[in-house]
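Sequence design from tokenized structure. All designs in this work follow the same two-part layout: the structure record, then the generated sequence. An example of the structure record is given first.
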């Protein structure tokens, strides 16, 4: 029994001692099916504000059986910059991106949630509040996008120290891609833009 306790303590100490932080990037690539909403570049990307409570670079972690962080994922630039870059590329892919000062509307984004984690299965979660305003600050359209991604089996063996940072990064990257696409392809937003793109 004492031997088992020693082995257990050794594995716990090894897990704690192996804690590491990896800087990751989350590039946005427009899907092949992405289509232009209008021929007029009428939206200028405004502010992207990170209202999460877990740090400007924090993304997530692979956790050990005790719930502690074993492998930590942080973004290279702040999360707000990554999300802003993704929305910029998304607007360009839809023919909507206007130059600074040249847009009929400004798109402001608030990051309410964006993180990833793995205890057994890999998970990622996002909540973005998207607001379309005019130069005068009038709110024309508002929509909250909620996206979640869960990957892997409850009985997976690639957990704890065997879990892959890259696999978790991919889940977070795919979620960011989907959340931005859902925000910009929201039927209500598309309908509003079609009705007001030339007025």
């Amino acid at each position: 029994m004492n031997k088992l306790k020693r082995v257990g303590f050794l594995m716990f100490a090894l897990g704690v001692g192996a804690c590491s932080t990896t800087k990751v990037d989350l590039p946005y690539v427009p899907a092949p099916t992405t289509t232009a909403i209008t021929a007029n570049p009428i939206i200028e990307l405004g502010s992207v504000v990170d209202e999460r409570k877990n740090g400007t670079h924090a993304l997530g972690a692979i956790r050990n059986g005790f719930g502690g962080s074993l492998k930590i994922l942080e973004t290279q630039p702040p999360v707000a910059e990554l999300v802003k870059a993704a929305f910029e590329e998304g607007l360009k892919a839809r023919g909507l991106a206007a130059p600074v000062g040249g847009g009929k509307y400004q798109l402001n984004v608030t990051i309410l949630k964006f993180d990833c984690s793995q205890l057994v299965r890999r998970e990622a979660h996002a909540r973005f509040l998207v607001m379309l305003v005019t130069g005068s600050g009038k709110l024309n359209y508002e929509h909250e996008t909620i996206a979640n991604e869960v990957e892997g089996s409850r009985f997976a063996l690639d957990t704890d120290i065997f879990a892959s940072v890259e696999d978790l990064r991919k889940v977070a990257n795919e979620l960011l891609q989907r959340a931005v696409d859902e925000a910009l392809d929201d039927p209500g937003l598309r309908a509003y833009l079609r009705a007001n793109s030339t007025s």
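The chain has one domain: 21-196. We note this feature because it recurs in several other targets discussed in the main text.
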